[in-house]
Amino acid sequence: MAVLLGGTESIRDCYVNSAVDRVWHIVKGDLTEWSITNGGTEFSPKKRLLIGTPGIGKSMAAGSYLLYELLHYDVEKLQGVAYLLADRAFLFDKTTRTMSEYMGEPDTLNTVGNLSDRGVRGYIIYDVAEKGRQPSIDLLCKGWGMILVTSPNINNYQGWASHVSAGQISINCPDKNDVKAMCAWAKHDANAREQEKYWKMV
Q1: Do 115 and 26 share a domain, yes or no?
Q2: Which whole-number Å values give the CA distances from 102 to 94, 116, 146, in the listed order?
Q3: How many Å apart are CA 96 and CA 114, to the nearest integer?
Q4: Taking every annotated instance into account, which residue ranges of this chain make up the domain Retrotransposon hot spot protein,C-terminal (predicted)?
């Protein structure tokens, strides 16, 4: 199933804290290094392991934010993005502005492999939704970077991370200033007393 991506509606109330933004800048740095090393032809971005903290939604939606940024990254340097979650995969073709959905890992592997063989460069976000389920090694396609988003459960990533020598990124709970900023934005239309009440409640 392919869906045309042409909407221009803006996203409201999307809060990104400094820890999540730091993850994107690390990935962006990998992509920059990739693009300037032999034009990206003989080099693939580092494989990354993003470990979240229990109680904060695993990684504070870092996977979704990475997807947003990767879709807006220079299409000349990155033509495809794949987002894998449980048995579903969403493959975004930035050149045609379409999204295709796949059920089951084999179909996804075949599609990404075919794109890689054609010289398409892309990035895979693998969000571990089931405990103990690690990505297939076959996902390591030439010309495609990858990040594994997981909780601290080592059964979710240990074998994969060791095989690919993944660079680890840890994401911690938001600090006091981050939480204050989030509360201020959530209640920016309220008066000072209501804002203070909301902050104390959080």
Answers
A1: yes
A2: 17, 17, 18
A3: 16
A4: 49-191
For the entire predicted model, the pTM comes to 0.80
Number of compact structural domains in the chain: 2
For residue 169, the cross-strand partners are 50
Distances (CA, A) of 138 to 72, 78, 103, 106: 26, 20, 17, 10
pLDDT in tens, 14-52: 667 788 889 999 999 999 888 776 555 555 678 999 998
In this structure, the answer to whether residues 149 and 58 fall within a common structural domain is: yes
Query: What six digits make up the tokens of 157?
Result: 């990533």
Q: Does residue 193 share a domain with residue 100?
A: no
Sign of the alpha-carbon torsion through 160, 162, 166, 171 = positive
Q: Which domain holds residue 198?
A: 174-202
Q: Give the dihedral sign, CA 164/169/170/172.
A: negative
